[in-house]
């Protein structure tokens, strides 16, 4: 049975993720994965599948948030669809194949990989470092290769790819707004391909009686996706009133704390 405590935690997590997504323009995987592992620990879920479930469920929620973000950026003309078309094939292949690797790694190893990557993201966010533009838009071969790498890493840590795609596009002299918009578009194939991969690789874990589909917890997906979608506009409004650069530093510290706490749970 799905307890009321779990539902409340999913709602609170989804609400927080929505505000953070609107405020910082992120997909929320960096918050969802460590937070879900803590909730799953409370639910006494088997530890061997805990990290896989957190990654798969997080990826599924990004499908919903990426659609909303993509539509908003497209309306403002902020998506470079020509670049997206070059990146997408590599993104889809890299993301899907990486879920096979993620499925055979232990939860402990996945937690270590996730924590190291999110530590890098947190430091970059805290220091507010941006790459210096130095090149023109790359050709199809480089974009395909870059897309494959971005997709693979995104699947391993269950993110929408923004922390990788945005700096990569800025490096190619793409305007920051269009880099963010194109990254939002890239987040959709990452999320869809990643979710399908975690469902396929976790098929033996399916237990519809307990609302588990592959490596996706359906109740967690539903409540987190719904409430993150509903609260994202609050974050957008806050972005125009709060000192975002200062808040980003606090947020980076929170991400680091969550990752350390999650890693400690597996050691």
UniProtKB/TrEMBL annotation:
The keyword Glycoprotein does not apply. It comes from the Bacteria. PANTHER family: MEMBRANE TRANSPORTER PROTEIN HI_0806-RELATED (PTHR43483:SF3). It is found in: Cell membrane; Membrane. It is a multi-pass membrane protein. This is Probable membrane transporter protein. The chain crosses the membrane at residues 7-33, 53-72, 84-104, 110-127, 148-170, 176-199, 211-229, 249-266. The keyword Transferase does not apply. It comes from Halarcobacter ebronensis. Belongs to the 4-toluene sulfonate uptake permease (TSUP) (TC 2.A.102) family. The lineage of its organism: Bacteria, Pseudomonadati, Campylobacterota, Epsilonproteobacteria, Campylobacterales. GO terms for cellular component: plasma membrane. Pfam families: TauE. Keywords: Cell membrane, Membrane, Transmembrane, Transmembrane helix.
């Amino acid at each position: 049975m799905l307890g009321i405590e779990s539902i409340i935690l999913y709602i609170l997590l989804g609400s927080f993720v929505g505000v953070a997504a609107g405020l910082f323009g992120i997909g929320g995987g960096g918050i969802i994965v460590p937070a879900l592992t803590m909730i799953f620990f409370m639910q006494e879920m088997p530890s061997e599948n805990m990290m896989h479930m957190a990654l798969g469920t997080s990826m599924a929620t990004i499908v919903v948030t990426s659609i909303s973000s993509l539509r908003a950026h497209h309306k403002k003309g902020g998506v470079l669809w020509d670049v997206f078309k070059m990146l997408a094939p590599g993104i889809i292949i890299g993301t899907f194949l990486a879920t096979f690797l993620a499925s055979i790694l232990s939860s402990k190893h996945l937690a270590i990989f996730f924590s190291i990557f999110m530590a890098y993201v947190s430091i970059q966010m805290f220091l507010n470092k941006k790459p210096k533009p130095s090149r023109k838009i790359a050709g199809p071969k480089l974009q395909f290769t870059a897309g494959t790498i971005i997709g693979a890493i995104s699947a391993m840590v269950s993110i929408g790819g923004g922390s990788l795609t945005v700096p990569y596009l800025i490096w190619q002299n793409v305007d920051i707004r269009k880099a963010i918009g194109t990254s939002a578009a890239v987040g959709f194939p990452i999320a869809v391909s990643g979710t399908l991969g975690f469902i396929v690789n976790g098929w033996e874990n399916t237990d519809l009686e307990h609302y588990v589909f592959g490596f996706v917890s359906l109740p967690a997906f539903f409540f987190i996706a719904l409430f993150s979608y509903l609260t994202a506009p609050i974050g957008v409004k806050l972005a125009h009133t709060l000192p975002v650069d200062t808040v980003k530093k606090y947020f980076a510290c929170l991400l680091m704390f969550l990752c350390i706490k999650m890693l400690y749970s597996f050691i």
